[in-house]
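question for whoever is on the cluster today: can someone run the full assembly for these? two chains, 958 residues total. i dont have access anymore since they changed the login thing
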Amino acid sequence: MPGSAGASAVSELPTRLEVEDLQQSLDEVQEILAQLRPQDERGAAREPEELLLAKVRAKLDRLHPADIAVVLETLPRDERLVVWNLVKAERDGEILLELSDAVRESLIASMEPGELLAAAETLEADEIADLLPDLPEDVAQDVIRALPQEERERLRAALSYEEGTVGALMDFDQVTVREDVTLEAVTRYLRRLDELPGHTDQLFVLDRERRLRGIVPLARLIVSDLELEVSQVMSQESLQLHPEDGAEDAAQAFERYDLVSAPVVDHFGRLIGRLTVNSVVDHIREKSAQTQLAESGLQEEEDVFAPVWNSFRNRWAWLALNLVTAFIASRVIGAFEGSIEKLVALAALMPIVAGIGGNSGNQTITMIVRALALGQIQSEYWRRLLRKELGVAMLNGVAWGTLLGAVAYALYGNVSLGGVMALAMLLNLLLAAGMGVAIPYFRVRLGRDPAVGASVLITACTDSGGFFIFLGLATLFLL
Amino acid sequence: MPGSAGASAVSELPTRLEVEDLQQSLDEVQEILAQLRPQDERGAAREPEELLLAKVRAKLDRLHPADIAVVLETLPRDERLVVWNLVKAERDGEILLELSDAVRESLIASMEPGELLAAAETLEADEIADLLPDLPEDVAQDVIRALPQEERERLRAALSYEEGTVGALMDFDQVTVREDVTLEAVTRYLRRLDELPGHTDQLFVLDRERRLRGIVPLARLIVSDLELEVSQVMSQESLQLHPEDGAEDAAQAFERYDLVSAPVVDHFGRLIGRLTVNSVVDHIREKSAQTQLAESGLQEEEDVFAPVWNSFRNRWAWLALNLVTAFIASRVIGAFEGSIEKLVALAALMPIVAGIGGNSGNQTITMIVRALALGQIQSEYWRRLLRKELGVAMLNGVAWGTLLGAVAYALYGNVSLGGVMALAMLLNLLLAAGMGVAIPYFRVRLGRDPAVGASVLITACTDSGGFFIFLGLATLFLL
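^ ran it for u. tokens below:
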């Protein structure tokens, strides 16, 4: 091993990009921006503003559009606009595509119609389709009008598919060949293209009616004899997607079969586009972000530096919903005010029963919703699943119920109170398990997404249910 | 458009795989298995067991290993073992790789050491590294011993990197070339390989010390003149990863730069492996699953059909933790029992104050934890963030506080009670916002993962805090 020799040779290595580089670029931009801020107290000498801005501009010019997007996302609104105005106009389009919706909106709002039109013109049809909903109506019309005929039709196609379908994620950058030509001819054709579109790992073989006959992986093209015809080397078996297929199904197929790209065909088998793994990755990330945000009650990805009012709008609906369920729980307690007045210990103990039920129910429902998303629960196994969850709840109920019964007895020296506590725990955990299975079961039967609102529903059941069970038992046995 | 002509030609199209096909295969396997079950009451005539099993086997032989994994995950344990024994032994290894940990363990437990060894021998070093921790100690030793020298070293390398690093995800299937040969020679070399490894979108150019000099995208190899030398067409600028880089950083780089593969080099710039987009996709999925499970208190992915005892073990720690926080909240209430005894309405109203605080705090902390994961919060902006969150809380507090104050007044006809309710709401929402910013801030400062336990911590604060604020104010002003 040429240890030291190797080390000394590091500087001769080609320009490399490493994962830390982005953080470093970010820090450098931040540092220059910090110098731009009015420095009220310390009147430190600083470089003239133009020089500083020129420095930021030079840094930005060397960054990948996706990295500029990260820089923009990390800046508060005023500084974001300063940086945005330093970006070369011809890169605006690419960068807007990489931004989260909230930040994208804030930048679009700052741009003139002419600038927006110019930015859109640098993009391809499938990319414009992503951007169009965020553009002002008149600019959107101008963008569509400015497109050449073929692109306009593609744009129309891309816009016609709903979010969450393959059609909304596909692009039109496929490379196609005929089956009766030689690989030699294919190679000559590809050379004329000069550069292949990103993620071209296979060529699509079409007949005269544009129907997909097969695929030729680039890797096979390279290792095959150039005198062979396309029909001799193409694969006929491949995954074919339809534009109305669910994006999530397609993503699972990409994951299972380790795909880089897949053809998208219509119902006559005609090729209309392709789906690539980078769109799939974006989809997976976005989907997982949405789940995470929805679970804690944010309607959409929030710009961290959004004005207070925007944040309020993004969050109020969930709080209102929870207020309703909390109000119902409060009325359940209200019905037992007489009992609480007689035995005030109930007020202190009741949140424990409700809380543990909520946690346990959330565990059950999360596991089931995940298993459903992965297609792991076939219709004949629900009964078995319910039995298992009730079993776990029984075990939990006996364990924690006994413990808490003992604690309640220790605190208040009242054996019956301990018994009621233990029994209420057990019953509320059984309720949580039952509802944790029943809620997703019925949502699936009704054709709804079992994930939506799962946590609110189960918590509402276990809160109100927990208070009712505990206070009800106490009223029956203790008073 | 040859509409009807196209439709009639559909049947002539090549064998296609569509996304619905998996569900159909699943249903077919399920159907045959259903016939295998003892049919106690209805003694319907059925085919002999061997014939049914042969049918399942024939179906399985036509499925992709990843699809067989899905079939296995959807079956209860007894039927899962029946199906597993029908799978051809030489496919065992690939299938085990595709399974979730819990299901994989259940199958490994059913296999003989000899079978396990045979299964492992069908895999490559990086795949064995994934499987090894689940194998019995003596089998693992045998597997390592049976490997050829080079593979054993790769295995050792793969095992030496921690989970969550690039080293743990990389494979060793890179295709490498020298820079001083012609593309003609490269093409001849590739043809001898017969088949290129999956996800080969670029060749890595090495010098004599195995240091990475550049990369040649396959797409460029195809469109270039074969008389050129590698050095004339290679790119020197490319993303280079180190095995100890974080998998999450690498995944973000793949996403941003739309990569299919990237070289992994050591600190002397020597190539040791490569990372491919399919490993990145798997990582992203797994990470998002973990987050989702952790948030609702499941320690790991659960086999839906796991025995009750296994599920209990997977869930108890979280319940115990929540029990502690619920107990603390209960003691806060206990301290005010005197007040509740005098004004029992407090018991009914207090969960509303605590609950809304918890929800609002979870919104804040989720947004911040996500923004931190995306690198959107630079250190100088925490103060600004806190101001914003306090602003949102103020708005929420005034809106919901007023509403709930009015409701409390309407219910109990007590103006002061309404006032206390409104004020307590406002204060608890401010507390939630403050802690929602402070908890991730301090966890980042201490070098901890801000996501872990975020929800428990904030809920603990807003529960105990909410009870304390509301009951405290009531004691001060109402009694």
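summary bc i know u wont read the tokens: Residues 1-15 of chain A have pLDDT under 50 and may be disordered. The longest helix of chain A spans residues 382-412.
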